[in-house]
Amino acid sequence: MGADNLHDDEIDLRELFAALWRGKWFVALCVCGAVALAALYLHSAERKYTVSYVFQPVASEEAMPNLGGLGGLASLAGVALPSSSSGDFATFKFLLQSEEVAGELMRDESLARRVFEREWDDAQALFRRPEGGALSSQIATVKLLLTGEGPGDYVAPNAARLSEWMKKAIASSTNRDTGFLTLTGESADPALIVDVMAAAAAATDRLLKERYVGSSEQTMGFYQRQLAKARAREHREALAKLIAQEDQKLMLASKGDYFVAEPLTTPSVSLHPTSPKSSLVLALAVVLGGFLGAALVLIRKAARS
What we know:
Distance between the termini: 25 Å
Strand content: 5-15%
Order of helices and strands: HHEHHHHEEHHEEHHEEH
Number of strands: 7
Largest sheet: 5 strands, antiparallel
Number of domains: 2
């Protein structure tokens, strides 16, 4: 009985390959059709380029001196002790795509218009909801029927929307070995991504500089008072080192150069489009076309049987 079943399975497998071989021209036709559709898509698809921008910390990271219980005293006094350069750089990375920085960028009306170009109405000189096609209205109707949620009220471009746009358009990563921060983005308008990256980095660095300068007088005064009270040589040396570091950072901030992060290189744009990937799209078309053709051949064979 087992031998007969094995024999039947072999016959079925032969018939399967025989059916596919008889329908090879149909399968080839499906592959050609899929490749033609992929080529049509590639001809009409929007070409996107990848932008890369690398930043490095301005100050080299130095070990903070051991102050014993001085940190607790500073907290009770309402004074924030300075963080290391790595902490400042982490703050820079966090603020880069925040609403606070986006609010600074929104002050540049020309940049905001470029980001939300589809919503800008030149005739009325204001932002308005972009007109959707018939497909968008049908999608909204289906969403209303399925979820009961209609289209929400239109919100003109603001800091929150620009922040969300930057989080989607720009990715950030930190190299563990070098500590460099790399910003990358992919867009059909690479010049816009470059301008947004540069403006966001400058605004973030400026905000951190203003915060530091605003609190530096209080911090330096606290250090001076603690230095006058200190009796242990270790504490006096540690406080003197902190005062020197703070004075160096204050001088750096007053010079008007980069405070926390500075560009390591100029923004780079890929020479060729990185999306869509033509080879991947065509390979996928061949595979899907072959599967579709083979499936149709086998379905036709089963229907005839």
